[in-house]
Amino acid sequence: MIETSVKNKLLHQWPPKYDKEYIPDLNEKYWYKDIETASREELDEIILFKVQKVMEHAYNHSPFYQRKWNKIGLHPHDIKSLKDFEQVPITTKADIRQDLEENPPFGSNVCVPYSEVHRIHGTSGTTGKPTVFSFGKDDWERIAHQHARIMWSFGMRPSDLVFIASPLSLYIGSWGALIGAERLGAKTFPFGAGQTGQTEKAVSWLKEVKPTVFYGTPSYSLYLAEKAKEQGVDPKEFGFRIMFFSGEPGAGVRSTKRRIEKTYGCICIDSGTMAEATPWMSNTECEHRTGVHLWLDVVYTEVVDKDTKQRVPYGGEGVPVYTPLERTSQPVIRFWSGDLTTWTDEPCPCGRVYPRLPKGIYGRIDDMITVRGVNVYASLVENIVRSIDGLGEEFRLVVTRENIMDEVTVQCETLGTRADGELEVQISRDLKRETGVNFKIKLLPLGTLERTQFKAKRVIDNRDFRS
Ligand code: 8LH
Questions:
Q1: Ligand 1 proximity of 362 Cβ (cutoff 6 Å)
Q2: Which of 46, 86, 206, 458 has the smallest C-beta neighbourhood within 10 Å, fewest atoms?
Q3: E-strand spans in 44-195?
Q4: Which residue's alpha carbon is at the smallest distance from atom 7 of ligand 1?
């Protein structure tokens, strides 16, 4: 069944109502060809319409946004162009946290009556008060629909069986992948992750059931491969066609992507924004894997300078700021990610109009280490460590302060196939070439560093700032 003229509908109806039964013809490359291959002007027209509508909705239903905008005399009617939209104040995690403190338990930004809330989710909240998310049923269905549409772009089809290997609890990542796959008509296997012994069980289940698609974090997929090999199983035997990832850098890091593809014999797809900006798949690679596409008619993403907060031109580096365009229950407008990326509008062989982040999200401002004036991200080191033969998958960056100088020690594990001295020289030289900085290197036996079943924390900051 072909749904005609979706583009036209999107210019007249908000929130959009999508045909719940629609899926494209199986050989069709695009879910909605008329939007995905529209001209940039046509795409901007859709974005502006949706931006105006979601702002109006937030203003009419969210005391949080009324307060925020009234304070500076801003009314949604003032936004007549996407340029005007660039002046709308940014919303931060701290703003949302403060609102939750002042208006417990759900905050003052839930724009549907409590009776219409369908799902509650939250952050795992290791520091501070966890953030609560309330989703209405229509929003939940639209999220599923947009995720299905985006999954289609990297080749998922209804004949696939999708193995969900991340925690099925508060984490929105797992649920977003699950409902998207279901909406696409695929079979799903919500296995989860994080329990003791679960990875060993995963190995035997995978051998038996043979899912064709994997979803989880890149760190976890490499840990799973290690566990499989320990049990004498070649990860290629699982038979994954596609592995898609979100939650942390990795799938967008060149050498990690290569390792995953080689280890499993699959294609490795990078994806993911933030729980707050769900539908979080709005940043996702297509089958060509040229960096994540920004599906701008789903979530309007701008990349802005980390200090001035002004939009950076294509080719520049900045922080993604997200505005989901179809959320009625808990809209966020210009949500600050704190992540770092570069963007481009150079065409992709897939023919979609969406710009791209060619290196994905490669760091967070607050995780960045400055060593002798050079900014260093864990993913930069990851790219090198994972490209060197004779090293295992895991590594850590340990930052210390000696006198007034910061030192970074890169800890990595050896496979025992090459002499330590030779490895140290190569790691040091490759890191210096890429970053211009001298790192200390510490080699460790395989299996020394802690593994994660979820998002890895690879920077350990031991600097004592009191002295
Ligand atoms: C990433 C990536 C990526 C997320 N490359 N860094 O999984 C998607 C959503 C649900 C998620 O992880 O949300 P959460 O838990 O709020 O974390 C968001 C942060 O995770 C985001 O700001 C990034 O720092 C990181 N992240 N996907 C690199 N593909």
A1: no
A2: 86
A3: 117-122, 132-136, 161-164, 187-190
A4: 247
CA of 245 to the centre of ligand 1 (A): 10
Percent of the chain with pLDDT over 90: 88
Residue 6: how many other CB atoms lie within 10 Å: 20
Q: Which of 439, 442, 438 is nearest to 414 (CA)?
A: 442
And the tokens for 185? 């008509």
The answer on pLDDT for 1 being more than 50 is no
Q: Which atom of ligand 1 is nearest to the CA of 172?
A: 10
Q: What is this model's ipTM?
A: 0.99
Say yes or no: CB of residue 364 within 6 Å of ligand 1: yes
Last residue of a domain, one of 342, 362, 382: 362
- pLDDT score of 466 more than 90: no
Give yes or no for a cis peptide into 24 (omega within 30° of 0).
no
CB neighbours of residue 407 within 10 Å: 17
**Closest ligand 1 atom to Cα of 166:** 7
- Measured from the CB, is residue 249 less than 6 Å from ligand 1? yes
Gap between the Cα atoms of 272 and 246, Å rounded: 5
Domain count, the chain: 2
Q: Let me know if residue 314 belongs to a domain.
A: yes
Residues sharing a CB contact under 8 Å with residue 84, sequence separation 6 or more, in sequence order: 78
Do 350 and 447 share a domain, yes or no?
Answer: no
The alpha carbon of 272 and the centre of ligand 1 are apart by a number of angstroms equal to 6
CA dihedral 111, 116, 118, 121 (to 10 degrees): 30
DSSP state of 391: E
Give the pLDDT confidence score for residue 2 in this predicted structure: 44
C-alpha torsion sign, points 273, 275, 277, 280: positive
pLDDT tier at 464, thresholds 50, 70, 90: confident
Whole-angstrom distance, CA of residue 284 vs CA of residue 295: 8
Rounded to an integer, the average pLDDT of 176-195 is: 97
Angle at which helices 63-70 and 40-61 cross, to 10°: 100
* Residues 399 and 353 reside in one and the same domain: no
pLDDT at 368: 83
Evaluate whether residue 467 is within a structural domain: no
Pocket perturbation via mutation, ligand 1, pick of 246, 269, 379, 382 by most ligand atoms within 8 A of CB: 246
Taking only the tens place, the pLDDT of each residue in 121-144 is: 998 665 667 899 999 999 999 999
pLDDT digits (tens, 9 = 90+) for 275-304: 999 999 999 999 999 999 999 999 999 999
Boundary of a domain, candidates 318, 344, 362: 362
Any idea what DSSP says for residue 96? Answer: H
Q: What is the CATH number of the domain that holds 372?
A: 3.30.300.30
Instruction: Print the domain residue range for 33.
Output: 1-362
Is the same domain home to 89 and 226?
yes
Residues recorded for the chain: 467
